[in-house]
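User: I'm curious what two different proteins look like when written out as structure tokens. Can you demonstrate?

Assistant: Sure. I'll show them one after the other, since each token string lines up with its own sequence. Here's the first protein:
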Amino acid sequence: MNKITQLFNIKYPIVQGGMIWNSGYKLASAVSNAGGLGLIGAGSMYPEVLREHIQKCKKATDKPFGVNIPMLYPNIEEIMNIVVEEGVKIVFTSAGNPKAWTSFLKSKGITVVHVVSSSIFALKAQEAGVDAIVAEGFEAGGHNGREETTTLTLIPMVKEKIQIPIIAAGGIATGRGMLATMILGADGVQVGSRFAASTESSSHHNFKQKIVDIKEGDTQLTLKELAPVRLIKNKFYEDVQDLYKKCPSKEDLVQLLGRARAKKGMFEGDLEEGELEIGQIAGLIHEILPVEKIINEMIADFEAAYQEKSKFEF
């Protein structure tokens, strides 16, 4: 057992990212049943919808699972109370100050993990009393850090600064990627894009197929003035780039973004007008697979890479 399997009482140190419009109870329970830690993504759920997914997840798995909560969302107090009322034991927080809710959650006996994009924020999370951190590199899909620090450099920099366990995220979809980040100092990995293209992901089939189809260089980080986000280059992305040529104000960008753009793309399958959030590693994802097969392949790949390490001896 390593620090992450011990902390969450799971078989493999693999955490499924709590991605909006992808991470319903079917995905979370499938990951937990296959030996990882499944996370329900609260970011795209109204409070009562979240409650329903937690209740269904409890019926679908007897293994540990958690909830990912972006703290910039409205109804945050209601969401935190639902998590406590439903007996959730693990919460991942992101997009906000870890001091805001860590002590409240810990007082309820909940294990707390915070997502960071820099060693400065990692230190702040450690000081706030979290049990572990997710250090997410620039390669990741969805909302991202402004620093553009890659996973390869972020993990050792964070490792140098903090004592609590580190979960690496951003650009990890294979066992070899998992081994590489663990050699750099991570205790486990968080995987998003690979699970977005799974049978059990709650996103639209059009979006899953698009993940499989895209190639290296087909994603880009944009909208830094609002909140940096990595998107697939589609019509909506091109509209954003055209607007940038006119030196837009923040309000202009907000107006173009509009409402429910991510839902339109990932959940409803509009590949032109929707916001399609995915990581750079999508270029290595070639088919939609069941979660159990994804995890089994990752572990087999990890073990094969580990066995090959002797070829690097000098």
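Here's a second, unrelated protein for contrast:
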Amino acid sequence: MKPNPYRTERIAFTLLLISTVVIILPVFFIVFIIIQKGFSAISWEFLTSIPKMGMREGGIFPAIVGTLYLVLGTLIFALPLGVFSAIYLTEYAQDNLLTRLIKLAIINLAGVPSVVYGLFGLGIFVIFLKLGASILAGSLTLGVMVLPIIITTSKEALDSVPKSFREVSLSLGVSKWQTIRYSVLPHALPGILTGIILAISRAAGETAPILFTVAAFYLPKLPHSVFDQAMALPYHLYVISTQVPNVEVKIRYGTALVLMMIVLSLNLAAIILRSQFRKRKKW
């Protein structure tokens, strides 16, 4: 008796639906709890003032600014280096043992725990290069951490562009770089922006790397240069949850809610930009 293909399809669809629900429901549950317990803490004073009374009162403005500085610094360092590395590996590098080892190393680096990157940043940027605990050291450390993500996603985006685009451009006498610049990169931008979204999410939410390289327990003023320490929302949340007693629950969840909204806002901006580029695709 032959199996019914429609029945097999229904079973597969049901299993996929159950798997999706199992993944999505806990996420919605976590988000619901954060909003429920943290929304009452959100106010203009909470968002624009500095912490007071040993961080039991006041706001989180220095931590918000520090987080945005770190995300911006991470992208300034990692984005061009990651994209150019992907372009080289995809368009210029020969397919040999060395390049295959490099690609394998990049994939493996994406799975290295963040605390290892924190110790790396402490040893290289803070101590060896004598940058001290600073925004620059923290941004470089986070940049190194997200580089494998940007390189991998950018390379996959470049590989997805049909080879015929390159062949037609080269047949018209256009140089290799002009072909990449005008015929390949515009069509790979949506995939590259996907890597940027993943990089922003990881850089904004990590605690271990900034713990070693930039984060301060408490600062009454904003940083004035890239060589200053800064407060950051992930570390601030860790501190008020584990190190400071008698902090109201709504302040903890309110801090988590602000961090979540910042990450979602940055991701939403990148997603909108990605959708605009996707509309220009011709295939």
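A detail about the second structure: The chain has a mean pLDDT of 88.
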